[in-house]
Amino acid sequence: MDLIIRSAAPKDLPSLLEIINHAILNTTAIYDYEPRTLEQQKAWLEQMFIDGMPVIVAESDGEVIGYGSYNIFRPKIGYKFSVEHSIYLDEKSRGMGVGGKLLGSLIQRARESGLHTMIAGIDAANRGSIEFHKKYGFVEKGYLKEVGFKFDQWLDLVFMQLQLEDDD
């Protein structure tokens, strides 16, 4: 597979929308209930650009098959060096290394931006994502029981963290 990782552009919005809406409707990777509209996704992308936050896509044969982004962990000035990331892939692109390429690029961008730490909030039942993050140096730092509710069940959340600065 010929894979290109690049910054997202407005032309990618329909693909981003399709990928996120599939995750919303079919998984606990995101705790939203309602699919997003094109207008909502456009507003999100525009705000990410305004805030200087990366949104990157994985493209194969001219088709966007996944995307990733990060944003400040919490909306207080003291968190400005900590970011939480998200990666979403279309169904047919899972298990092919696409997520790793996106995460690697996000980690590199975060380091180049002088950020201190990256955080992942992962549904505790998603062992695949937890193991995936461990491969990239993320460490489990917290477990919150029954903080989410989706598909008529309570969901636990695992927080994982990667320190971006070297401990020289």
UniProtKB/TrEMBL annotation:
> SUPFAM superfamilies, per this entry?
Acyl-CoA N-acyltransferases (Nat)
Q: What is this protein called?
A: N-acetyltransferase family protein
Q: Which Pfam families match?
A: Acetyltransf_1
Q: Species name for this entry?
A: Dyadobacter sediminis
A single GO molecular-function term is:
acyltransferase activity, transferring groups other than amino-acyl groups
Q: Name the InterPro entries on file.
A: Acyl_CoA_acyltransferase (IPR016181), GNAT_dom (IPR000182)
**Would I find rRNA-binding among this entry's keywords?**
no
The positions making up the signal sequence are none
